[in-house]
Amino acid sequence: MPRDLRLSRMLHVLIHMDRHVAPATSEQISRMISTNPVVVRRMMGGLRERGIVTSEKGHGGGWRLARPLTEVTLRDVYEAVGAPSLFNIGPGADPSECLVERAVDARLERSLQEAEARLLAQFADVRVEDLARDFEGRLTEQSGSGGGPHAAGNPDTSYDT
């Protein structure tokens, strides 16, 4: 099963919007995360509904942050992108007649629910600004060692960070 990249992609976009690109059009964002602008509009629409971004049509329009990254948590973004499944493992989809499988499924389900609750609690404690500061620390380290095109702070050069 392929990984769901919506959360990491939108976190990436929010940090670029805060640090480099404001406003950002759906086309610009689609190039950042290598996807279709229609997909971008769908994901950004979830962020807009949660009050994380705003949008403006027309010349000079695009997506803008509605609040500072210090006020946005990983959990906010996770929920805005549709709260995708956190784990690719788990019990079978169909109930089984086998008592062994039922026991296994019940234990797996309980353990996964507990793990998900802990992970979501952690998501609620991490601000997107924390990730942006981590980016800046990495940028400083890379710049000290010569850096690359992205190290210069030019998001139009490369979007593969």
From TrEMBL:
<dbReference type="InterPro" id="IPR036388">
    <property type="entry name" value="WH-like_DNA-bd_sf"/>
</dbReference>
<protein>
    <submittedName>
        <fullName>Transcriptional regulator, BadM/Rrf2 family</fullName>
    </submittedName>
</protein>
<dbReference type="Pfam" id="PF02082">
    <property type="entry name" value="Rrf2"/>
</dbReference>
<dbReference type="GO" id="GO:0003700">
    <property type="term" value="F:DNA-binding transcription factor activity"/>
</dbReference>
<dbReference type="GO" id="GO:0005829">
    <property type="term" value="C:cytosol"/>
</dbReference>
<dbReference type="InterPro" id="IPR000944">
    <property type="entry name" value="Tscrpt_reg_Rrf2"/>
</dbReference>
<dbReference type="InterPro" id="IPR036390">
    <property type="entry name" value="WH_DNA-bd_sf"/>
</dbReference>
<feature type="region of interest" description="Disordered">
    <location>
        <begin position="137"/>
        <end position="161"/>
    </location>
</feature>
